[in-house]
Amino acid sequence: MILDIRQFPTGQHFDADLCIVGAGAAGISIARDMLGLPIKVLLLESGGFDFDAEVAALNEADNAADLKLDLESFRARLFGGTTSLWGGNCAPLDPIDFAPRPWVPFSGWPIKHEEMLPYWQRAQPLFELGDRGYDVDEWVLAEPDFEVVRLPLDTGLVREKVYQRSPRTQFGHRYGGELEPDSANVTVMLNGTAVGLRTDDSAGTVTGLEVRTLTGRSHTISARAVVLAAGIENARLLLLSNDREPAGLGNRHDAVGRYFMEHLNMVSGRAMIPGADDLYRFYDAEGWADRTSPTAVRMLVGLQPTPEMQEAAGIGNYVAFINRTFEGEQTAGYQALRHLLYRLRHAQLSDHLRNDLAALVGDFGSALKGSWNRVFAADTSIYEIQHFFEQVPNPDSRIRLGDRPDPLGMPRMVVDWRTTDQDKRTWAVGQDLVARAIGAGDGTGGTGRLQLEPAGPGLPWPDTIHQSSHYMGTTRISDDPRLGVVDHDCRVHGLSNLFVAGGSVLPTGGCAMVTINIVALALRLADHLKRLLA
């Protein structure tokens, strides 16, 4: 059943076998997997069914580094979480992502790639994907148009990485009906925000969860097991839970909040490939959403340095896409206009909105040109390179608690997002390998050239660098409690019944979008919880 916790008088206590904090992709996936079992599940969501500006204000955070994240606009506190915002691209992590890589500090998972295979298969239908896998030759047969425009490459340098395109499945809309019947063993509680975990005297077992509402009411939840599935809020909640452990739960080795990572994402350089008019349908991460030429292609191809070249060059995992864009679209004015319209549509009146307005006024001509060309001048299209790659884990990149309170009176999050010279090397070497692979082709002389911008350690990031909103790390998985927050079962070190799901457990990010990987890990955790609670 689905209830609004604001309807209960303050001071209510709720009991469950399993309490899941956060009804996004991970939380809903675990709850669905428990349906029909003799396990009483309570799924707690901070928001309701729709966007609410007052609830969204709980997302506000401060930035402590030069690279700033907009954590207000690109998170969604509502039933379904950020599946209401995501782009729909899906791919499993690569085998190299799970392996210890001597050239990537703090790399290596306590889980094997092959162990995850059945969970990616179980996750795939949740995203309304077909039965096909991620082998590019399989897609050549399935998409004859792709074979016509497929780029010949030097496969000793670069390989093709396939992403499948979900119809942007919104988990709240798609699966809410399954959780609604009163007879189900799952109860969804909306509009209640977890503000702290309480433990026994030894701080070894979670005994309760404190919940507050924006209407001023407080409640408690007790459960045999608790799963934090609230994305970047997972680390914040552990840090807030400091009545028994002054540094926060799971933080005896100062690991909570550290190793924060994003997928670095930018447009830099141009592709000069004769006859490239249809390339974007398959090589552009946003090509399927192009308003001037809509397409139903269900796959996307990125150009990825081979594992052998990654090791030889000492770089992280990287992929390049070939984007179709229009003159003026990559300017500060046009991007500010896009962001401004988004924020106004969602009633987000923050400093980010004021900054966008100032950028639009300062570059209004470019904004007008980009808008005109996008709608009316398809013949002005150009092809640019979109770089998408992982950061190496860095313990100094972190989130912590700040001094400013949020609307519930709790300390806001402060994000200190840092990059390294090795990240810049990944970009520099990755784009060079892709350029060489396209230029050499498959031995026939190549099909085109890339015009690259200077990149590498010591050089600044381009102005087009932006967040992917793939927040990873901060409660990373490691069997060594000095290097991570959760063990191979996603259980918080030192606590018997507290678990974490979501992107915060990823110890490395690879170059796959996170959502399907988050769900696969959540389904793996669900299997463990079913055995534990049986």
From TrEMBL:
<protein>
    <submittedName>
        <fullName>GMC family oxidoreductase</fullName>
    </submittedName>
</protein>
<feature type="transmembrane region" description="Helical">
    <location>
        <begin position="498"/>
        <end position="523"/>
    </location>
</feature>
<keyword id="KW-0472">Membrane</keyword>
<keyword id="KW-0285">Flavoprotein</keyword>
<keyword id="KW-0812">Transmembrane</keyword>
<comment type="similarity">
    <text>Belongs to the GMC oxidoreductase family.</text>
</comment>
<keyword id="KW-0274">FAD</keyword>
<dbReference type="InterPro" id="IPR036188">
    <property type="entry name" value="FAD/NAD-bd_sf"/>
</dbReference>
<keyword id="KW-0560">Oxidoreductase</keyword>
<feature type="domain" description="Glucose-methanol-choline oxidoreductase C-terminal">
    <location>
        <begin position="393"/>
        <end position="522"/>
    </location>
</feature>
<dbReference type="Pfam" id="PF05199">
    <property type="entry name" value="GMC_oxred_C"/>
</dbReference>
<keyword id="KW-1133">Transmembrane helix</keyword>
<dbReference type="InterPro" id="IPR051473">
    <property type="entry name" value="P2Ox-like"/>
</dbReference>
<dbReference type="InterPro" id="IPR007867">
    <property type="entry name" value="GMC_OxRtase_C"/>
</dbReference>
